[in-house]
Amino acid sequence: MVLFGLGRLFYVILLLINAVAVLSEERFLRRIGLGRSNDETPVFGQDQNTTKSKVVQLIGAVQTLLRIPLIGINILVIVYELLLG
Amino acid sequence: MSALFNFRSLLQVILLLICSCSYVHGQWPSLLDRYKNHEVLGAFWKMARVGERASPYVSLACILMAISQFNS
Fold first, then answer.
1. What range defines the domain where residue B57 resides?
2. Would you call B51 and A75 a contact, using CB atoms and an 8 Å cutoff?
3. What three-state secondary structure class fits B35?
């Protein structure tokens, strides 16, 4: 990578975001009680402030927001690694 | 081609492939289901299936890879 430290940091961040985004909702998250539908139904428009609901919201947001861009970024990184190592 | 001969880079490439295949399968299922029984392209469907079924282990592997990338 061109920028030595930042390239490594980029890989680390990419892998960590991937680690959150692969967790499948219906097979894993719902079983351990972190699924979005498993969340105690909040009162209309009111945010819950427990840690668990924050984690659930974070995982859900990452999955809905970042999955489609991650496809492209992953494929770019794969092609880069295969061609230039 | 050096990613194929360096074990850690190969592992990283496989992990990223599993991740992106499972995203593609979640988003557009017919794209990968079409090649389910294909000899070569069926591998992508298999990787998508691995990413769906074994997602906690894939996620753990991603975190471990990030840690090892961070330390090296």
1. 11-71
2. no
3. coil
Q: Which of residues 5-24 of B touch A (CB under 8 A)?
A: 6, 9, 12-13, 15-20, 22-24
Distance from CA of B69 to the nearest CA of A (A): 7
Please state which of the ranges A1-5, B15-19, B32-36, B41-45 shows the lowest mean pLDDT: A1-5
- Residue A11 is nearest to which of B23, B53, B69, comparing CB atoms? B69
ipTM of this model?
0.87
Report yes or no on A31 lying in a domain: yes
Sign of the dihedral defined by the CA atoms of residues A51, A11, B67, B6, in that order = positive
